[in-house]
Amino acid sequence: MKRDITQLFIEWKNRKNRKPLLIRGARQVGKTYAVEDFARQYYANYVKVNLEEKPGLKRLFVNMDPKLITEELSVVYNTDISPGQTLLFIDEIQVSPEALLSLRYFFEQMPELHVIAAGSLLDHTLNEMETPMPVGRVEFCHMHPMSFMEFLQALGEDKLIDYIERYSFDKGIGQAIHEKALNLLRYYLFIGGMPEAISNYIEYQKLNEIERIQSTILTSFQYDFAKYGSRSQQQHLMNAMKYVGQHPCSRIKYVKIDPDSRAATVKEALHKLVLSRIIHRVRHSSSPGVPLSKHSRDDIFKALFLDIGLSNSLNHIQLTDPTKILTINEGSMAEQFAGQELLTLQAPYSDPDLYYWTRLEKSADAEVDFLLQHNNTIYPVEVKAGKMGKLKSLHVYLFEKKLATAIRLNTDLPSLGNFSVKVRSGNQEGEIQYKLLSLPLYLISQIPRLLDSVQQDAG
Questions:
Q1: What is the arithmetic mean of pLDDT over 181-203?
Q2: Average pLDDT, the chain
Q3: Mean pLDDT, residues 46-61
Q4: Is residue 328 scored above 60 in pLDDT?
Q5: How far apart are CA 336 and CA 280, in angstroms?
Q6: Parallel, antiparallel, or unpaired: how do β-strands 428-440 and 415-425 relate?
Q7: Most buried one in 156, 186, 293, 339, CB count within 10 A?
Q8: By CB neighbour count within 10 A (0-12 exposed, 13-18 middle, 19+ buried), where does 282 fall?
Q9: 347-366: pLDDT as tens digits
């Protein structure tokens, strides 16, 4: 299955000033497969060193001498390691701080050798290392579960992909194509983006097998918890993971996750899940302009789960027929999907972040699901599970921040319109004129391109 991150790998390979590349991402999002597939296509040979499967090899990195390391690895794997011809892939590198630090010396002493490293719990090790990673000696990139467009590509839906990528507001989408895209989207909402689940579905077309795989993946996360401390601490991690998975995109209140534990304990459990990339913080921002991070609040956030398929598994939603099933979680499912897709819009070499807005005053109920920063402009994004839905919070946000363009994501056909509405916010009231991009959820990947076209037409 082709992954979008392969393009980043190709660009990295072709750069003269490349540095060792360190891939960050949750367990089982496809890091190893993506690197191996890339290596087979673009290198004469490659050497994979899995430090979790062969812990004895950690000794090779203690001296941190790249020449000695590659000489010994060449003998161990009975193959040549030739700069420019070989890709050296160090998998599960998080189990060896020495191996992480040795990447600096690969850059300084053997820059012509192509080195990629990855680790499922990498952020924990980076966070705990006494000697920090040398700035400027290593490149980072981030991997997520497979996006909806990657899912379509795995299914062989090349014509639909091409149609989506060429869509423009003046062209429109035919009803038959719209229904097909929605149907495939519903399957993705329940299968999710974990590569093993998608691969199994493509091969066997059995939804009950997907449930088994999702359950196995969640169990593997629990086994990782054993590395984080006592049984009590592991239970806190389980409680936090289950809560976020069952209530994706809900504002976090520690007492709701575990009413019998101290807030500091629950906070620490959530922090470890963030480091494991199992959950992602969607932080509140009241910023009137870019950057959104300038007026964000780390203590006020919603939590996005790693994958919508795994979220449904934690909710015990059976995958009998995704095209017909209705659940009480439809709204949060749509928001979870939108959050996953919005994360993939960000450059893989940057640490991804998401923001939302809510009125913090007591008894205030205005909330905008996501805030998107594109070309130094902020766009509020409202997500609806169906075709209809009020946009009161969106209007309040546009009024307060003096913005003129908004995005609505739902299941209706796309449209672009200009609107004028009266708004009341606290003691203030007025009228706003704004442009609304209304897009079906399956077009999220095209938001940057469509925003550019709208801005170009306006300019």
A1: 95
A2: 92
A3: 95
A4: no
A5: 11
A6: antiparallel
A7: 339
A8: buried
A9: 999 889 999 999 877 666 78
State the pTM of this model.
Answer: 0.94
pLDDT, tens digit (0-9, with 9 covering 90-100), for 61-107: 999 999 999 999 999 999 999 999 999 999 999 999 999 999 999 99
> Can you tell me the distance from the alpha carbon of 148 to that of 336, in angstroms, rounded to the nearest whole number?
13
